[in-house]
Amino acid sequence: SQRTLVLLKPDTVKRGLVGEVLSRFEAKGLTIVAMEHRLIDGSKADEHYVEHVERDFYPPLRAFVTSGPLVALLLEGDEAIEVVRAINGATDGRKAAPGTIRGDLSLSNRENLVHGSDSPESAEREIAIWFPQH
Ligand code: ATP
């Protein structure tokens, strides 16, 4: 079994889609190990997105992820990292396949509802940031 860090970004909360998105992970069979609803500041965003802070798209991404509360999730299951990324779909909601969270519910490259760790190393780093007690 494997653990992964998922964020339901502020657009998910603002659009009232937390239940819809959580349902998909639960229905798949992933276990919610920890869950927290919180508003983050810019320094927390920088810590999470350390690989992106120098990118052109980062300033608006930083503004977006600090614009309202999000929900952080620690999910567990067999091959959870890859499974979550498949459920999330491609980064750009306009191109993500129907059947995925982004493909069904997002029409944006930035406001794409969810984040999922992209490797075991990222998952370990991100879980330490969001759920240090785990
Ligand atoms: P995540 O890491 O959030 O699961 P991802 O791995 O599909 O998404 P990354 O390339 O790591 O995407 O980018 C992180 C986030 O930055 C994206 O989820 C999206 O919100 C935003 N982003 C990425 N590329 C762009 C872009 N070209 N324009 C605007 N926002 C972008």
TrEMBL record:
<dbReference type="InterPro" id="IPR036850">
    <property type="entry name" value="NDK-like_dom_sf"/>
</dbReference>
<keyword id="KW-0547">Nucleotide-binding</keyword>
<feature type="active site" description="Pros-phosphohistidine intermediate">
    <location>
        <position position="115"/>
    </location>
</feature>
<dbReference type="GO" id="GO:0004550">
    <property type="term" value="F:nucleoside diphosphate kinase activity"/>
</dbReference>
<keyword id="KW-0597">Phosphoprotein</keyword>
<feature type="binding site">
    <location>
        <position position="112"/>
    </location>
    <ligand>
        <name>ATP</name>
    </ligand>
</feature>
<dbReference type="GO" id="GO:0006183">
    <property type="term" value="P:GTP biosynthetic process"/>
</dbReference>
<keyword id="KW-0479">Metal-binding</keyword>
<keyword id="KW-0963">Cytoplasm</keyword>
<dbReference type="GO" id="GO:0005737">
    <property type="term" value="C:cytoplasm"/>
</dbReference>
<dbReference type="GO" id="GO:0006241">
    <property type="term" value="P:CTP biosynthetic process"/>
</dbReference>
<keyword id="KW-0067">ATP-binding</keyword>
<feature type="binding site">
    <location>
        <position position="57"/>
    </location>
    <ligand>
        <name>ATP</name>
    </ligand>
</feature>
<feature type="domain" description="Nucleoside diphosphate kinase-like">
    <location>
        <begin position="1"/>
        <end position="134"/>
    </location>
</feature>
<keyword id="KW-0418">Kinase</keyword>
<comment type="similarity">
    <text>Belongs to the NDK family.</text>
</comment>
<dbReference type="GO" id="GO:0005524">
    <property type="term" value="F:ATP binding"/>
</dbReference>
<dbReference type="InterPro" id="IPR034907">
    <property type="entry name" value="NDK-like_dom"/>
</dbReference>
<feature type="binding site">
    <location>
        <position position="85"/>
    </location>
    <ligand>
        <name>ATP</name>
    </ligand>
</feature>
<protein>
    <recommendedName>
        <fullName>Nucleoside diphosphate kinase</fullName>
        <ecNumber>2.7.4.6</ecNumber>
    </recommendedName>
</protein>
<dbReference type="InterPro" id="IPR001564">
    <property type="entry name" value="Nucleoside_diP_kinase"/>
</dbReference>
<feature type="binding site">
    <location>
        <position position="102"/>
    </location>
    <ligand>
        <name>ATP</name>
    </ligand>
</feature>
<feature type="binding site">
    <location>
        <position position="9"/>
    </location>
    <ligand>
        <name>ATP</name>
    </ligand>
</feature>
<keyword id="KW-0460">Magnesium</keyword>
<comment type="subunit">
    <text>Homotetramer.</text>
</comment>
<feature type="binding site">
    <location>
        <position position="91"/>
    </location>
    <ligand>
        <name>ATP</name>
    </ligand>
</feature>
<keyword id="KW-0546">Nucleotide metabolism</keyword>
<dbReference type="InterPro" id="IPR023005">
    <property type="entry name" value="Nucleoside_diP_kinase_AS"/>
</dbReference>
<dbReference type="GO" id="GO:0006228">
    <property type="term" value="P:UTP biosynthetic process"/>
</dbReference>
<dbReference type="GO" id="GO:0046872">
    <property type="term" value="F:metal ion binding"/>
</dbReference>
<dbReference type="Pfam" id="PF00334">
    <property type="entry name" value="NDK"/>
</dbReference>
<comment type="function">
    <text>Major role in the synthesis of nucleoside triphosphates other than ATP. The ATP gamma phosphate is transferred to the NDP beta phosphate via a ping-pong mechanism, using a phosphorylated active-site intermediate.</text>
</comment>
<keyword id="KW-0808">Transferase</keyword>
